[in-house]
Amino acid sequence: HLSKMPRLWLEYVDVLEKMRKGTQLRHAFDRALRALPITQHDKIWPRYVTWAESCGVQQTALNAHTRRCMFEPQRREAFCDWLVAQNDHGKAAAELAKCLEDQDFVSPSGKSKHQLWMRLCDLCAAHPEELPSSLDVDQIIRSGLSRFRDEVGRLWCKLADYYIRLGRFEEARNVYEEAVTTVVTARDFGLVFDAYSRFEESVLEAKMAKLEDEPEEEEAERDVYEPTAQEEIDFRLARLEHLMERRPLLLSSVLLRQNPHSVSEWHARAEICKDDPAKAIECYSDAVKTVDVYKATGKPHTLWTAFASYYASRNDLANARVVLERAVEQDFRTVDDLASVYCYWVEMELQRENHEEALAVARKAVLEPQRRRRLHKEQIPVQEKVHRSSKLWSLYLDLEESLGTLDSARSAYDRCLELKVATPQIVANYASMLEEKEYYEDSFGAYERGVALFHWPHVRELWFGYLTAFHARYGGTKLERSRDLYEQALRKAPAADAATLLVDYAKLEEAHGLGRRAMAVYERAALAADDERAFGAWRLYAAKVERAYGAPKARGVYERAVKALNVDDDAKKMCLAFASLERGLGEVDRARAILAHGAQFADPRLDDHYWQTWRDFEVQHGNEDTFREMLRVKRSVETARSSAVYVADGLLKTDAPLMSDAEAERRMAGDQPASKKRSADEGGAAETEMAALERQAARIVEATSKAPAADPNEIDLDDDDSDDDGEQVLSTKPVPAAVFGSAAAQAAEMSEPQGALARFQKKAS
Question: Are 621 and 584 in contact (CB under 8 A)?
């Protein structure tokens, strides 16, 4: 049983190896493999293969590797490496092909199927003459093209390189041509095209070098006709130039293979072929056949219009019309696409001054289909919906107005309004056309139909145009009708437009109606205006009242304006205007009270104009007490504003937890809105009622009539704490009048009443 022990066999072969008995050693390895069970062969094969590789006989090593691969198929990759090292590339490629055919093969070195496949392709392309006939290299590489999509460019180049090394240049050229027309990425196209161009350049260089080395044979020495070397060089050079000229077109084909429904790429391809009419027409024909409107990226209808434009640019209107007739019968994704085709058709006819054809095309486009199928909205073809396109109707109406008769134009406008496809601009154009033809009532009827179709804000321009045209025609002769029109326009008008309409309404009443009605409309305009236009409306109303009835009547308008304005800046401006009115009337006290009321809206830190105006007023009309009162109000307003800012800043920086929406609503319901003006009793700067103005004025007048108030900063010394036993009385003396000079007379004048009546009496005396 000693023959079943591998250890003895290994020691035996060691002895034979030291004795350099090569043949006996080989026989010993064979006897050991026959004697030992197959489960113990893995102890013999490593020593056997190592000795076979070092014995110096390549056939022995080849047989050893072959037998071992039958026992261990995973060792086939190492066998390939040894064959490559021995420059036996044919057998290495065959063994590598066996590895790839074995679905259970796993590379011991961790290489993937892709790496093994690329290595096989490299071996086939680099050593085609050494490959066995059993390997179909063309089929192997082409099968890799379908399996490895990211290596398509490299595989095509290897296949072409395989034929080039075999000297089969025409087959290599065919491979390159097939490659540049089938690759689908720009990267693969770049690899293949660069290899193709280098191949053509190398062939051309070889032909030129051959021509220099070998002189050309005489014509008489040739038995049969063959192209001369120079002719062949010219042919190769022309082929290379043709290849370079085809590059943009080939690259465009690559991009279209990626997305055959790319409209922009088809346009780019047509631009490349524009100099060759046959290719350009073929390109457009392929484009309109290939592009699916529901998968297209871009606007498919532009392909049809560009196709027709190509014919029209070469004065071939017959073919252009044929293209457009086919285009309007095609299916499009939206109605606007088909309408664009019709519009282009009309414009093309107009550019060639074919006015009748253009008008006929437009009439055909807006013609309502005779029989309408009852289908789902999405299933109705665009040809049955294009007659409701506003774009087409606008073009058609312009053509009827300029090329047709008045009756045909009116009929077209009426049909457009009946179909309810008109836009406000179409209605305005209809009315303007009738007005130019002096059909005034029909023009107003068109406006009436237009304002009935649309709502605000789209109807805004129609109402203003209607009212302007009506005023221009009738002026004040049909005042009641004008009033009815304004009232109709104001029913649903938004605030901004209502204010503008009311101002125009008031101007109409002012020019042709009653002044009382005009003032009422101005008041409506002021009340209807939004916050942005409220100040201007109230100022206009006050100016109109002051002009019509005098300044005293405008007081009520100013009072209502100050109360109605919601923006502090507007209220402040209105107070300044009100105070200026009272100052002009000589009512200094009322003006002062108004300035005091408006002070709550003017931040002293931001609005210097308001406080400078009040200061100038006090310098001119007030006294020391009123000036101090102005300064006190200024300090109080500044303090209130600063406190508000401080509180707001504190709220932003607080770490208090956030309230829920419900809790916030309850708290807001219990608190007074911050934007509402507080009354004087609640601690506000002044009441919002006009009575607060009178109360403020009375307080200021009372302050002016009293003796000078004691200084609040004066230190009050307690006499009881004095150390003196008796009280010391200080005597006083009157100051001579000469010390004051003219100031005494001015003080006496200021102590007198400052009302308007007192000043008039003083001037009269």
Answer: no
Tokens of 409: 């134009």
Tokens linked to 380:
């109705």
3 state SS of 73: helix
Assigned token pair, 81: 């490496």
Phi, psi of 388 (to 5 degrees): -105, 15
Output b/e per residue, 567-603; b: 16+ Cβ within 10 A: ebebbbbbbbbbbebbbebbbbbbbbbbbbbbbbbbb
- The torsion angles phi and psi of 717, rounded to 5 degrees, stand at -95, 130
How far apart CA 599 and CA 685 sit, in angstroms, is: 8
Q: pTM, whole model, 2 decimals?
A: 0.65
Cβ atoms of 416 and 422 within 8 Å: the answer is: yes
Rounded alpha-carbon distances, angstroms, from residue 744 to 228, 741, 748: 132, 6, 6
Which amino acid is residue 511, in one-letter code? A
Q: In this structure, what token pair is assigned to residue 203?
A: 């062939």
**DSSP assignment of 602-645, as one string?**
--TTT-HHHHHHHHHHHHHH--HHHHHHHHHHHHHHHHHHHHHH
Give the pair of three-digit tokens for residue 349.
């006819």
Asked if 469 contacts 436 with a C-beta cutoff of 8 angstroms, the reply is no
- What pLDDT sits at residue 340? 92
Would you state the pLDDT for residue 81? Answer: 77
Q: Which amino acid is at 599?
A: A
- Count CB neighbours of 457 within 10 A: 11
Amino acid at 364: K
Contacts 24+ apart (CB under 8 A), 580-583: 581/546, 581/551, 581/554, 581/555, 582/555, 583/617, 583/621
CB 629 within 8 A of CB 703: yes
* H-run or E-run covering 416: helix 406-419
Of residues 545, 459, 538, the one with CA closest to residue 497: 459
**pLDDT, tens digit, 9 for 90 and up, residues 697-750:** 455 545 444 434 444 434 343 443 333 444 334 344 454 444 344 444 444 444
List, in order, residues 6 or more apart from 601 with CB less than 8 Å away: 568, 569, 571, 572, 575
Length of the chain, in residues: 765
Three-class SS state of 235: helix
- Please give the Cα distance from 294 to 436 (Å, whole number): 47
> Which of 91-95, 272-276, 505-509 shows the lowest mean pLDDT across its residues?
91-95
Give the SS3 label for residue 297.
strand
Report the C-alpha gap between 392 and 181 in whole angstroms. 43
Contact between residue 696 and residue 593 where contact means Cβ atoms under 8 Å apart: yes
Q: How far is CA 739 from the centre of its chain?
A: 81
**What is the maximum span of the chain, computed from C-alpha positions, in angstroms?**
163
- Residues 363 and 345: beta-carbon distance below 8 Å: no
CA distance 27 to 7: 17
Condensed to tens digits (0 to 9), the pLDDT of residues 337-375 reads: 999 999 999 999 999 888 899 999 999 988 887 765 554
Q: At what angle do helices 152-165 and 186-213 cross, to 10 degrees?
A: 20
- CA-closest candidate to residue 151, choices 109, 185, 193, 108: 185
Q: In the chain, what are the helix, strand and coil shares in percent, each to the nearest 5?
A: 75, 0, 25
pLDDT in tens, 155-173: 899 889 888 888 888 899 9
Instruction: Give which of 630, 611, 612 is closest to 622, Cα–Cα.
Output: 630
Assign 262 to helix, strand or coil. strand
